[in-house]
Design a protein that fits this description.
- By secondary structure, this protein is of the alpha/beta class.
- The chain folds into two domains: 6-187 and 227-253, Rossmann fold; 190-224, no CATH class.
- The protein contains eight helices and seven strands; from the N terminus they run E-H-E-H-E-H-E-H-E-H-E-H-H-H-E.
- It has helices spanning 15-26, 39-53, 67-81, 104-132, 153-172, 191-204, 208-216, 228-238; strands at residues 6-9, 30-34, 57-60, 86-89, 135-140, 178-185, 250-253.
- Strands 3-2-1-4-5-6-7 form a seven-stranded parallel β-sheet, with helices on both faces.
- Strand 1, helix 1 (15-26) and strand 2 form a beta-alpha-beta unit.
- Helix 4 packs parallel to helix 5 and helix 6 (191-204) packs across helix 7 (208-216).
- The longest helix has 29 residues, at 104-132.
- The mean pLDDT is 96.
- The structure holds nicotinamide-adenine-dinucleotide (NAD).
- Nicotinamide-adenine-dinucleotide is lined by residues 11-17, 34-37, 63-65, 90-93, 113-114, 140, 142, 185, 187-188, 190-193.
Length: 260
C-alpha cells in the first residue's frame, strides 16, 4: 500500500478550512487541523473525520499570527505524520471599517494571518516537497484578491498580496513537481461572513438584511452563497495528479462576481 499523503490545512476548525480538510480526508489523506478554538471544542470534529474516513487526524492550536507559531505547526505535522505533501493556507480574519478609522492593530493582524502566515508556511514546506519532487500548495485568497470593495483595506491588500505570493512561488517550483494555486471564493456562508454583517451594517448605515441582499449577494450574480463543499471539492482536485498543469492560477468560485 502506498503511504498516505499528509495535508496541513490552516484555520480548519471552522468554515472553509474545515470543508477542505473534510474533502482531503475523504481522498484518504492524513490531516492536520488548525485553529484557535480549545481542543475540547474541536475534538468531536477531529474524531468524526478520523472515523468517517479511516485516516489519522490531529488538531494543532498553533497561533499563526506570528512566524514561530507557523513553524511550530509545520514541525509538529512532520513529527507526527512525516513530510507535508499538501499545504492549504486558509486561516484568515476580516475587519470592516473606513480607512480613516481602520485600527492599526487590525491592519497588522490581518497582514500577519492572511498573508505572512502563508509565506512562512510555504517557506517551511517547499524544501521537503522539492526533495520528494511532489507537492501541492493551495492558498485560499478571495474575490477580494482580484477586485476591491470599500472598507476592507487590510483584507483586500492581504488577498492581493497572497495572489502575488502564489504566482511567484509557482514559478520558482514549477520544475519540481509542485503546484501553487489560489482559490478565490466569493461569499461563502461561514462564521467569518456572518460576523462581518453587523460591522458592515454599521459602516454603511444599513440593516443586516439590507447588507445580505444589497451588499453581499449584490456582487454575486448567482444570488447564492458558495458552499464550503464546493471549495473543498476544488481543493481536493488541485491536490491530484490530474491537476499537475494547473499552477500559478487564481481560480474564482464566486458565482460570477469577478466576471462583471
Ligand atoms: P472562519 O472564521 O469560519 O474560520 C477561520 C479559521 O481561522 C478558524 O479555523 C479559526 O480558528 C482560524 N484562525 C483564526 N485566527 C487564527 C490564528 N491566529 N491562528 C490560527 N488559526 C486562526 O472563516 P472562513 O470564512 O472559513 O474563511 C477561511 C478563509 O477563506 C479566510 O482566509 C477567508 O479570508 C477566506 N474567504 C472566505 C470567504 C467567505 O465568504 N467566507 C470568502 C472569500 C475568502
Amino acid at each position: 500500500m502506498t503511504k498516505r499523503k499528509t495535508a496541513v490545512v490552516t484555520g480548519s476548525s471552522s468554515g472553509i478550512g474545515l470543508g477542505i480538510a473534510q474533502a482531503l480526508a475523504a481522498k484518504g489523506m492524513n490531516v492536520v487541523l488548525n485553529g484557535i478554538e480549545p481542543e475540547v471544542q474541536i475534538e468531536p470534529i477531529r474524531a468524526g473525520l478520523a472515523t468517517e474516513f479511516g485516516v489519522d487526524v490531529i488538531y494543532d492550536r498553533a497561533n499563526l499570527m506570528d512566524p514561530a507559531g507557523v513553524v511550530a505547526l509545520m514541525t509538529g505535522a512532520e513529527a507526527r505524520f512525516g513530510p507535508v505533501d499538501v499545504l492549504v493556507n486558509n486561516a484568515g480574519i476580516q475587519h470592516v471599517a473606513p480607512i480613516e478609522d481602520f485600527p492599526d492593530e487590525k491592519w497588522q493582524a490581518i497582514l500577519n494571518l492572511n498573508l505572512s502566515a502563508a509565506f512562512f508556511a510555504t517557506k517551511a514546506a517547499v524544501p521537503g516537497m522539492k526533495t520528494r519532487g511532489w507537492g501541492r500548495i493551495i492558498n485560499i485568497a478571495s474575490a477580494h484578491g482580484l477586485v476591491a470593495s470599500p472598507y476592507k483595506s487590510a483584507y483586500v491588500a492581504a488577498k492581493h498580496g497572497l495572489l502575488g505570493l502564489t504566482k511567484t512561488v509557482a514559478l520558482e517550483v514549477a520544475e519540481n513537481g509542485i503546484t501553487v494555486n489560489a482559490i478565490c471564493p466569493g461569499y461563502v456562508w461561514t462564521p467569518l461572513v456572518e460576523k462581518q454583517i453587523p460591522e458592515t451594517a454599521k459602516a454603511r448605515g444599513m440593516t443586516e438584511e439590507e447588507v445580505k441582499r444589497d451588499v453581499l449577494l449584490a456582487a454575486q450574480p448567482t444570488k447564492k452563497f458558495a458552499t464550503v463543499g464546493q471549495i473543498g471539492a476544488l481543493a481536493a482536485f488541485l491536490a491530484t495528479d490530474d491537476a499537475a498543469s494547473i499552477t500559478g492560477a487564481a481560480l474564482p468560485v464566486d458565482g460570477g462576481w469577478t466576471a462583471q
